[in-house]
Amino acid sequence: MWYSLCDRYGLYVVDEANIETHGMVPMNRLSDDPTWLPAMSQRVTRMVQRDRNHPCIIIWSLGNESGHGANHDALYRWIKSQDPSRPVQYEGGGANTAATDIICPMYARVDQDQPFPAVPKWSIKKWLSMPGEQRPLILCEYAHAMGNSLGGYAKYWQAFRQYPRLQGGFVWDWVDQSLIKYDDKGNPWSAYGGDFGDTPNDRQFCMDGLVFADRTPHPSLFEAKHAQQFFQFVLLPDEPRKIEVTSEYLFRHSDNEILHWSIAQDGKPLAAGEVTLDIAPQGSQVIILPQVSLPTDAGQLWLTVRVEQPQATAWADAGHISAWQQWPLEQRLNIDFPPCVSQAPQLTTNGDTFDVALGNKRWAFCRKQGVLIQYWIGDQAQLLSPLIDQFTRAPLDNDIGVSEVTRIDPNAWVERWKAAGHYCAEATLLQCEAEALSGAVLITTAHVWQYQGEALFVSRKTYRIDGYGKMQISVDVDIARGTPNPARIGLSCQLALVAERVNWLGLGPHENYPDRLTSACFDRWDLPLEEMYTPYVFPSENGLRCETHELCYGSHRWQGNFQFNISRYSQKQLMETSHRHLLQPETGTWLNIDGFHMGIGGDDSWSPSVSPEYLLNAPRYHYQLIWC
């Protein structure tokens, strides 16, 4: 049935023999033993004879993770004698053997070599340029989509489009393979390795899909769809504005596609239009946009295009968006000269606190701790915990890798952070001063974050509260030499409020991270609070939204250029809980606002895979935001 569906829908298939010797030592122990040739031959010959008339099958594969042996060479020769029209691929032996027509490595990276002693994995770009190498490269597995993953996926597709011999790959994998169990009350929950009394086990390594077990999408699915979309767009540097649209359809003329364009400022529509696409296979069309009078006031201006299929197809409903792209447009510099106000905040010193008051707002800064410990609007306290620095995250699967309690991998990010003391560092106050200015109050603090006497971070902050009741927070963080790159540089607090919805101007609507945000669209978004949390079966850091310029939650508003996540679960609870059904909503709402956040990686999930450009490896960072 699967092959027939692929024939119908036009999906290319690599048909792989059901052969694997993973676990044998050495791995090719069976594949190099002639007594196993008949068993291997039966599986290969039956596959070819059964499936050879399916047009969807374009490549034969000799199997998976079986090393390389003489049996593979014999089976390769047999297939070529029976079907010389199709190439044969096999990854074992590093894809550099006589048993494959294609370089088909697992988890090779775009730009980084992995010089393992037995079978090196070169970067996919380098592999193409090896002396005498003329074969195409197709990754038989890549982009390990385990939990909050698929960071850097767009880099692969940039390379695939740039180099014709880089011809794609197979994401590992499609669906989480957790299973349903039931608790004592009959409530279902998702189980993984170890939940069935099975030892040894591979924990949550069965959950590495683009969709959950119930087939609802992971956020990573949107990233994969956007990277692989069949239309590419270039905003040309001409006037009037022109967009070049290129079709990556190999055979079909664009006969069911309408391009919709729109220009918006801060999420408010200004102009829109549509054009019917008329593009030959692998051809291009230049769309000339009409002149649009843009506003003269400051604001975030974005041009967005979407390709819609107005007619239903065999695989999509009418109105399906098959591709989209977005560009920031030139905009006026935001020079804010607010009018003078007659009132100014009042600063008083009351024992252990600096208190600032303006109208119905009050702020209390602890002089011994150097932190904002409370904020009142009227008689309502807004904080359940102080506003403090945050440098850690509940570890992702990619942060943990293969590290376990009884078998620690010191190279895993989480183990580096633990060993350096990131999770249990304590702050020592260096400075806490308050000053009444003309029309504002300035609080200045400095802390050193230490673990076992070693300095990890120095954080300097200024809080400027003005006559409008706005608090501008400026933060400078120095990172000690030799300290592992932190997961984030930001602030965290527990708000007393639990509001129904979250509104923000930034990238969305789904979760996005610095190395997984090409599928996120800049707009004004509004979602229920519970949808700001991504329900990964194995709890971890989740729900970040990047490039946020404004966040509104209840009566609170934050402005700047930051990343945030907001939910009923603290990072501590996420880190200490093994399954999502065990999470308990906490009092209030946890808010994390980051000036900077490390990438999530995903080239694989057993080694540190965040690309260098997405690591927080600078010695100093600065960010600021306004809390209105």
Walkthrough of the structure:
The chain is built from 9 helices and 31 strands. With 628 residues, it is mainly beta. Among the domains are: 225 residues, TIM Barrel; 100 residues, Immunoglobulins (Immunoglobulin-like, Sandwich), CATH 2.60.40. The chain starts with a helix and ends with a strand. The model has no long low-confidence stretch (mean pLDDT 96). InterPro entries: B-gal_small/dom_5, Bact_Beta-galactosidase, Beta-gal/glucu_dom_sf, Gal_mutarotase_sf_dom, GH, GH-type_carb-bd, Glyco_hydro_2, Glyco_hydro_2_AS.
Set out the fold topology:
Layout (H helix, E strand, L loop, with lengths): L1 H8 L3 E4 L20 H15 L5 E5 L8 H13 L5 E2 L34 H5 L8 E6 L10 H10 L3 E6 L7 E4 L5 E4 L27 H9 L3 E6 L5 E6 L10 E8 L2 E9 L7 E5 L12 E9 L10 E9 L17 E5 L2 E6 L2 E6 L4 E7 L2 E2 L6 E3 L6 H4 L12 H8 L5 E12 L2 E12 L2 E13 L4 E9 L8 E8 L5 E8 L12 E8 L16 E9 L2 E12 L3 H6 L12 E9 L22 E8 L1
Helix pairs in contact: 2-3
